[in-house]
Amino acid sequence: MLHFRNTRAMGLANALAAWQAGITRFDSSLDGLGSCSFASGVSGTVGTEGTEDLVHMFESMSVYTSVNLDALLEVAATLPNLIGHEVPG
């Protein structure tokens, strides 16, 4: 399993390269939530976009993810109200 940051907007590109190298499990965050608590200026987990863009990328390539993207997007839409502020995704 791999976990990427979106440093220099390379999170999704790095996930794609990892998949092409045989990695099939990825750790990501919903709607781009998350950051590095011990290093200032470090970007969010797998893209500012988050899990939904990772799933969309793979499914657009006909890679089965077992994730219901529509349901994931519905949950992501509830996050601003749930956490009390806008989210980056």
Automatic annotation (TrEMBL):
Residues 1-73 form the Pyruvate carboxyltransferase domain. Keywords: Lyase, Metal-binding. It comes from the Bacteria. Belongs to the HMG-CoA lyase family. This is Pyruvate carboxyltransferase domain-containing protein. It comes from Halomonas casei.
